[in-house]
Amino acid sequence: MTEVVDSDELLRRIQRARGCARDEERRWRARRVDLGPTDPEAAQEAAVRVLAYETVLRVLDEILTPGRHDAEG
User: Fold this and answer.
1) In terms of CB atoms within 10 Å, which of 33, 50, 54, 70 comes out highest?
2) Per residue in 19-31, pLDDT tens?
3) Interhelix angle for 7-35 vs 40-64, to 10°?
4) 2: which DSSP letter?
5) DSSP states of 8-37 as a string?
6) What span, in angstroms and rounded, lies between the C-alpha atoms of 62 and 10?
7) Is the CB of residue 32 less than 8 Å from the CB of residue 41?
8) Which domain holds residue 49?
């Protein structure tokens, strides 16, 4: 079944998703730092996940504030 949502609800959902992605990016960044000295392979996997969440954040930021990253480069 299809759920119809208005633009305000869609915006709230995107903002909530951005918050979750930001939290996950921070969590994986911390994990990468913690694992670096003891488990380089796991630290590398965490680094890849950090990049993935950075990409998700960039996409969601572009939806929320178009053109923001154009100026940042």
Assistant:
1) 50
2) 999 999 999 999 9
3) 160
4) P
5) HHHHHHHHHHHHHHHHHHHHHHHHHHHHTT
6) 15
7) no
8) 36-66
